[in-house]
């Protein structure tokens, strides 16, 4: 799928310093030595075997690389690690049940607030997190929110999936823009201009848990709206929310028709087919265009960070993937050893490269990873972990925030207003009522 | 020797009084009940228990992974004021009503057609079953492409033919989405009805039609006074099944729209799944599922009475 090999990256020149560590036949041996160093701190229980349930990959090369990493871990420590894949939506229910009955996979790797659903049932990984933070330039702020609860680290935020603007360069220039809009006001002009030029864009308003939630939360927060405040009190019914809805309506009126039915996959294929000229997505469209050798699209597309709204700071919402280990595991040390192993430069750098910028690191030192400079079009994804707000934003990142996302409260509020099914007031009231129920306990 | 024999006979135990248990064990009327016991245990374990558990959950605030507490009718009170829930009830009734009526009409028509003698009869009958054989998820994915806003072959054809200027927004518009999902359900459900009714048609003795022809009956009269009355029992059964399947449909909607746009195609089943499994509010999801029971019960009762009353079956009135 990807076009990166260690060789091509080496030829990139700028990347040489960082890749130098990865190159050559000494790599495996070095990884082994390093793993043994980590294993000295977290010595796996003798004869330990682990099971890890993870979200199902979106980029094949990412999974291949991860499985190679797992094999290296087994080679280095002797711990057998079985990896089970589940679709993103199914990880949370399974983890919740496992936590409650006290049996199941040793480790879960899921979405956003997963460890906060049952903070008392996961092992404390503060030592691992501190070790990694110290060694690799510290954790980004959102990683600390997702990873910590009550002063302890309850999970290792392994990575983020950046959701960025994907756009066609030629149609942007035709619309009179030299660079992708930086503010919401400019963005609306851009949206109108591209529509007029018959090169429209669009963003998902169907029940798209990734792309849909990403853009409506960006829009809500960009205008200062919020579902809850810092004390988890519902405050969605506000003039700021109304403003964000009005703005979204203007955008929607200039989208390509049909976005109300889009799920997560629609914009990918519409973009590749040249039907939409900008949308919000991971960097996977670019990877797919490369894989399918659609050179005209590869050359003519680029990525951008989200425009900033009246609040004056980025309000992006990227997906986070925390990895946790359950207290019921018989091999907590082996779990910690794996977490440390995964995040060590020798292993993580390679995995990051193979994920072709689909995954972004939570540790500052990985800013230097060659994947961010080898292709300038992927550089924007480097900063998504630093810029993202967390699920629930001002409020807690726990179960309530997760349920509000799963029940599409904010997404439906936007969809029902912009598609004309509800008034601003009506749409807000429905969301308000649903949110109050979720947050009452 | 003789004495011994007499003594032995005398020593025989007195006949024990027959207990109710003995009677039950041997009673022929109860024999049937004994044979049914394994099946009943199976039903209780795998049908009744989950059903009752679901009803019980609907009175609690259980979440996935957390035991809940009894909250009485709170879930139902909340749903009563929840516009999304009422939209889903409306959608479910519309979906079931329209799809069932059309499926019945088309299915009956197809059955009558297939009942005639024609070349390649067996092959044609087999072909009709195809939509029913294809797994729902696969046919749903096929429809997903047919209904795609950008790539729909339907839109493309009409556009090339110059009949429309822009693509049809099949799943993005509220009513378009409703009719599109209903159409997909009909396409899937017709074969089941057609083939079952065809089986019913073939049990009707040709001599009845011969007699009617001799009496000078017209085709419509033959249908009205022979076919229809004799087909009623099977219609009752097949329509009950059809209504139940349509009412509880899940896969088709989930693949096509996930309940969107703006909940316009959320059925009670999909909403229940979204709230219970994805949103982890098992209690509320169970309440939505439980709210389906009265509707399903009504459908079953109607057909049950239909089956019980012979006169009604034969096209007459009940006295």
Low-confidence stretches of chain A: 1-26
Give the total of beta strands of chain A: 10
β content of chain B, as a range?
Answer: under 5%
- The poorly predicted ranges of chain B are none
The coarse overall form of chain B would be flat
CATH superfamily of the largest domain in chain A: Periplasmic binding protein-like II
Query: Helicity of chain A, in percent?
Result: 40-55%
What's the total count of β strands of chain B?
0
CATH fold call of the largest domain in chain B: MetI-like fold
CA(first)-CA(last) distance of chain B:
78 Å
Q: What's the helix-strand series of chain B?
A: HHHHHHHHHHHHHHHH
Question: Any idea what the radius of gyration of chain A is?
Answer: 22 Å
Q: List the total number of helices of chain B.
A: 16
CATH architecture of the largest domain in chain B: Orthogonal Bundle
List the helices and strands and how they pair.
The complex is a heterodimer of chains A (441) and B (319).
Chain A: H1 6-11, H2 16-20, H3 26-41, E1 49-55, H4 60-77, E2 80-86, H5 88-101, E3 107-109, H6 126-135, H7 141-147, E4 148-149, E5 152-153, E6 156-161, E7 164-168, H8 169-174, H9 184-196, H10 211-222, H11 239-253, H12 266-272, E8 278-281, H13 284-291, H14 295-300, E9 301-304, E10 319-325, H15 332-343, H16 345-354, H17 371-374, H18 384-387, H19 399-406, H20 409-418, H21 424-439
Parallel strand pairs in A: 1-2, 1-3
Antiparallel strand pairs in A: 3-10, 4-5, 6-10, 7-8, 7-9
Chain B: H1 2-10, H2 20-26, H3 28-57, H4 74-80, H5 83-114, H6 121-128, H7 130-133, H8 136-146, H9 153-160, H10 174-202, H11 206-214, H12 219-247, H13 251-256, H14 268-278, H15 282-308, H16 310-313
């Amino acid at each position: 799928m990807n076009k990166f090999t260690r060789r091509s990256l080496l030829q990139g020149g700028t990347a040489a310093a960082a890749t130098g560590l990865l190159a050559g036949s000494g790599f495996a041996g070095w990884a082994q030595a390093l793993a043994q160093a980590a294993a000295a701190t977290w010595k796996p229980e003798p004869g330990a075997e682990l099971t890890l349930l993870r979200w199902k990959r979106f980029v094949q090369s990412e999974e291949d690389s991860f499985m190679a990493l797992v094999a290296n871990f087994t080679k280095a420590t002797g711990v057998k690690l079985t990896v089970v894949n589940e679709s993103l939506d199914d990880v949370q229910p399974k983890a919740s049940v496992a936590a409650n009955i006290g049996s199941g996979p040793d480790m879960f790797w899921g979405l956003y607030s997963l460890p906060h659903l049952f903070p008392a049932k996961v092992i404390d990984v503060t030592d691992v997190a501190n070790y990694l933070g110290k060694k690799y330039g510290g954790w980004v702020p959102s990683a600390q929110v997702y990873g910590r609860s009550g002063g302890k680290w309850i999970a290792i935020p392994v990575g983020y999936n950046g959701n960025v603007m994907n756009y066609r360069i030629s149609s942007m220039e035709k619309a009179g823009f030299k660079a992708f809009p930086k503010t919401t006001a400019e963005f609306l002009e851009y949206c109108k201009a591209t529509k007029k030029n018959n090169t429209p864009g669009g963003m998902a308003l169907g029940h798209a848990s990734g792309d849909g939630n990403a853009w409506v939360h960006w829009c809500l927060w960009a205008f200062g709206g919020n579902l809850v405040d810092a004390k988890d009190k519902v405050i969605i019914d506000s003039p700021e929310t109304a403003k964000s809805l009005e703005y979204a309506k203007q955008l929607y009126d200039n989208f390509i028709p049909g976005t109300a039915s889009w799920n997560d996959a629609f914009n990918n294929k519409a973009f590749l087919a040249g039907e939409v000229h900008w949308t919000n997505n991971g960097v996977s469209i670019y990877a797919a265009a490369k894989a399918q050798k659609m050179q005209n699209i590869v050359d003519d597309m680029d990525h951008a960070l989200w425009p900033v709204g009246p609040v004056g700071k980025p309000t992006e919402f990227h997906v986070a993937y925390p990895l946790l280990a359950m207290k019921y595991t018989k091999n907590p040390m082996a779990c910690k050893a794996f977490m440390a192993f995964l995040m060590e430069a020798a292993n993580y750098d390679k995995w990051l490269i193979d994920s072709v910028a689909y995954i972004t690191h939570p540790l500052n030192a990985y800013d230097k990873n060659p994947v961010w400079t080898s292709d300038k079009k992927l550089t924007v994804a480097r900063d998504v972990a630093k810029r993202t707000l967390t699920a629930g934003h001002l409020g807690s990142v726990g179960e309530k925030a997760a349920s509000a996302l799963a029940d599409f409260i904010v997404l439906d509020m936007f969809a029902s207003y912009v598609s004309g099914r509800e008034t601003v007031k009506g749409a807000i009231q429905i969301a308000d009522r649903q949110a109050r129920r979720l947050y009452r306990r | 020797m003789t004495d011994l024999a007499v003594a032995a006979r005398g020593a025989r135990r007195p006949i024990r009084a027959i207990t109710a248990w003995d009677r039950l064990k041997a009673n022929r009327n109860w024999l049937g009940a004994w044979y049914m016991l394994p099946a009943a245990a199976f039903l209780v374990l795998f049908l009744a228990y989950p059903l009752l558990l679901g009803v019980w959950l609907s009175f609690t605030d259980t979440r996935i992974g957390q035991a809940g507490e009894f909250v009485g009718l709170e879930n139902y009170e909340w749903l009563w004021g929840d516009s999304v829930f009422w939209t889903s009830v409306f959608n479910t009734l519309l979906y079931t009503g329209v799809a069932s009526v059309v499926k019945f009409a088309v299915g009956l028509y197809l059955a009558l057609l297939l009942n005639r003698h024609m070349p390649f009869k067996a092959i044609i009958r087999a072909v009709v079953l195809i939509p029913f054989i294809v797994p729902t998820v696969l046919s749903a994915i096929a429809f997903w492409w047919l209904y795609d806003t950008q790539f729909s072959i339907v839109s493309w054809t009409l556009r090339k033919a110059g009949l429309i200027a822009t693509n049809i927004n099949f799943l993005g518009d509220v009513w378009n989405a409703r009719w599109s999902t209903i159409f997909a359900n009909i396409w899937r459900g017709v074969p089941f009805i057609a083939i079952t009714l065809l089986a019913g048609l073939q049990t009707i003795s040709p001599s009845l039609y011969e007699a009617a022809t001799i009496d000078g009956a017209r085709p419509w009269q033959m249908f009205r006074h022979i076919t229809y009355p004799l087909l009623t029992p099977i219609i009752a059964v097949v329509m009950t099944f059809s209504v139940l399947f349509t009412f509880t449909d899940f896969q088709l909607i989930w693949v096509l729209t996930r309940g969107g746009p703006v909940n316009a195609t959320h059925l009670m089943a999909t909403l229940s799944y979204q709230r219970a499994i994805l949103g982890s509010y098992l209690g509320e999801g169970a309440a939505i599922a439980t709210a389906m029971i009265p509707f399903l019960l009504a459908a079953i009762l109607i057909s049950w009475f239909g089956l019980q009353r012979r006169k009604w079956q034969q096209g007459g009135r009940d006295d």
